Amino acid sequence: MHIDFHDNTKSVSADIVDTIQQLLLFAAKKEGIAREAEISVNFVDDNEIQALNRNYRQLDKPTDVLSFALQDVVDEELDIIGEDSIPLALGDIVISVDTASRQADEYGHSDEREFCFLALHGFLHLLGYDHMNTEDETIMTEKQNELLESFGIGR
Description:
By secondary structure, the protein is α/β, with parallel strands linked by helices.
């Protein structure tokens, strides 16, 4: 899987980016994602994520992570001719550096652990996991915990 990183804040360390990349590649392999798949991970500040949250979710406040899945099926969507020959674009993950750092302090763990958790959470959303009801939330939470622990990132 190809991961394209963009740090609009220019504040996320190369070590954290590398760990996120390794975690997402690990998770992709565990979830059976094709090697040709592509995602982007974007680091922004609270102002930028608040604008995205307002425009796409009608919630005018910052949040920690947003996911924009490109593989959601939409009614009346046209099939792409030659689709088998192009990379599978799963979507975009957007993480607020400001909120992630605050949450790491609140939860008493490292920034690296918080960024990894948020990136994995966003990635699972791109794969169709959700937490809109209790049953789905349980499935997603168990999957997050399983992947984080087996990768070696505990609380």
